[in-house]
Amino acid sequence: MQTIRGFSISQELRERFLSAKSVFVLTGAGVSAESGVPTFRGGGNTAVWKGMPFDVISSARMVERNLPAVWEWFDYRRNLLKSLQPNPAHVEIARWQDRFENFTLVTQNIDGLHQEAGSRNVIELHGSIWRARCVTCQVRFNILKDEARPDACLDCGDSLRPDVVLFGELLPPDAFEHAAEEAAHCDLCFVVGTSAIVYPAASLPEIARTAGAYICEVNPERTPLSNLCNEMLTGNAGEVLPLFG
Ligand code: APR
Question: How many whole angstroms separate alpha carbon 230 and alpha carbon 201?
Fold first, then answer.
C-alpha cells in the first residue's frame, strides 16, 4: 500500500484500479492548481476581476452588455496560461487513456492543459479559452498561443465571443449527454479538484454512484460530494495521482 502524508490508497481502491474495465474521470480547476492556474473557489476565496466577482464578468449578461470587458478578462486568463505547463496530475491522467478498455475524461476546465499533456477526446463541458465563436453563425475559431485572436467572424464578419460556457448559459447538450452516458457505465470514477457545487457537472459522479461505480475523490478539502464517495484522498492531485502509476 503506497502512502503520502495524511492518507493512503486503500487495498480495495488499488485492486479496483488494477481490475477496472471502464474508468471515468471528472476534473475541475484544482487539477491545474499546481500548474499555477488560479482556482475559482477553495481556500475560502473566490476570484475577482477589477472589483467584479468572476461569475459577473464571466456571464451571458456581460456578453450582451460589455463584450470588450469579457474579452479583457479572458485575454488576461489566456495570457496567464501561455507560460504554464501540465503538471504530474495531467500527465498521469493522460497515461490512463491507454490503460483501460474504456476511459472517459470530462473536464470543467477551459485551460487545455489535459490536451497539452496528451489526453485525447477530452469532453470539455465548459468549452475552451483557446477558441472563439461567432455570436451569429456560431462558427468556431482556434486562438493560437503566439497569435492575436481573430477580432471578427471570418465567415459572416460579426463579433466573436469566447467559446466558453458562461454563467447563465447551458452546457453544450451533446457534451453533457455523452459524459452522463459514460458516467452511467463506468466501474471506477475519479473526481479530481472540483468544489462540486456547479451543476450539472457535479451530478456526473452522482450518476456514476447510482449506477454502482466506486467513487474516489482527490482534493485537499472536503466538498459536498465527499459523503457520496467511497474513498477520499485528501491531498494535491499532482502528488496523489502519480501514486497510481
Ligand atoms: N489538487 C486537487 N484539488 C485541488 C488542488 C490540488 N492541487 N488545489 C485546490 N483544489 C480543490 C479546491 O479545494 C476546490 O475544491 O479544487 C477545487 C477548485 O474548486 P473551484 O475553484 O470551485 O473550481 P471548479 O470546481 O472547477 O469550478 C466549477 O465553476 O467557476 C465555474 O466554470 C467555472 O468550471 C468552473 C466551475
Answer: 19
